Amino acid sequence: MTDPVDDTSAQGPEGMSRRQLIRHTAWFGAAVVLTVSGGEVISHIGGTSTAAAPADDPNALRFAQVSDSHLGFQGTANTDVEQSFSRAIDEVNALPNRPDFVVHSGDLTHLATDAQFDQAKQMLGGLQTGQVFTVPGEHDSIDDHGQKYRKRFGAGTTGDGWFSFDIKGVHVIGLVNTLSLEKLGHLGTDQLDFVRRDVAGLSSDTPIVVFSHIPLFAMYPKWGWGTDDATQALHYLRRFASVTCLNGHVHQLFTKTEGNVTFYSATTTAYPLPKPGQAIAPTPVTLPAGKLAGALGIRDVTYLTGQHALAIRDRKLT
Amino acid sequence: MPASGSASKAVGAPVTTNAIAIQNFAFSPATVTIKAGTTITWTNRDQDAHTVTATKRSFHSATLNTGDTFRHTFTTPGTYEYLCTIHPFMTATIVVTK
Questions:
Q1: Does any CB of chain A come closer than 8 Å to the CB of residue B58?
Q2: Is A6 within the bounds of a domain?
Q3: How far is the alpha carbon of B77 from chain A, nearest alpha carbon, in Å?
Q4: What would the pLDDT profile of A172-199 be if each residue is shown by its tens digit?
Q5: Are A104 and A68 in contact (CB under 8 A)?
Q6: ipTM beyond cut 0.90
Q7: B15-97: which CATH topology?
Q8: Domain count for chain A
């Protein structure tokens, strides 16, 4: 965790500028389109013909998401999760443009041991990016309410590890919904209050990006794939023109739009889980030989300030 | 500690036993009724690790690797919900009677 980055261009004191008005219109009218091209699943805002920003655009915000690395996992679903995570890091480092930051959306470790956390910290240090942010998964907080996690990844966060910052006109929030869970994810009153206060002073045209481990939408509550008090958090975000929620936990790509909010579940760098309801329980799936890499991946996101583009691109590991 | 009766494979139906298996990502039996003072033993028979954690945190195990056991004695009547914090979709119940 590092200090928040301020971008004063996002909020002019004199009210909505022409550029803000254009951006507001663009985000308000946004519709997510999902396309598949070659080895990539590409989702992007409707109306944009390309998911990539011009390479020389200094205003473009670029970030990457990796998730569910489960360092220490041992099983047939992936016999070398460390190597898979290493390949994911290489893939981030090979992106056409260096990301402004990278978020790991939880389950860094499989069993929250000191050795697994140390390995995660060391490997994340290999990312070529400005900053690395994390939120914990339930595997990172098995028996200590996240203490070992926060010891290594909690710097610069508040509460039990939540945080926010502004960068290139976008407000980014990292939430922790794996500490007080009772089957479903849970945010708790302290964190909900943080969200309320955090966004209170923001202009409603500020694009909001929210990270959490467990989905903030009801993807499949029977398996715990939802957050029991997320509705209250989303209520505080209702006035914003565009809210993008990025989560892990479910080890598969999934997209859903509810009003002004679009949810994107990310895939994993470790092993796939079954699709909702297509197994007795969400337990690791062992794929036929040679198929695993196609189920793993990373995500990169581009946002062009003042233009009509939020591009979310999911890339398979190669 | 021997299981009492042959109902250890039943899932969902209340049974009386003092041995609970953690197997195929589930607690089996999922609901157990015991008298106060009974000690329950959980045994992890999965390849993956699990925990036994009361949702109210009145009891909780360490991480249980394959073959590990956890014991807890229930002295107060009531209904105790618990889960595995590593796989929180794994939920189960202990009912303690007088």
A1: no
A2: no
A3: 22
A4: 999 999 998 888 999 999 999 999 999 9
A5: no
A6: no
A7: Immunoglobulin-like (2.60.40)
A8: 1
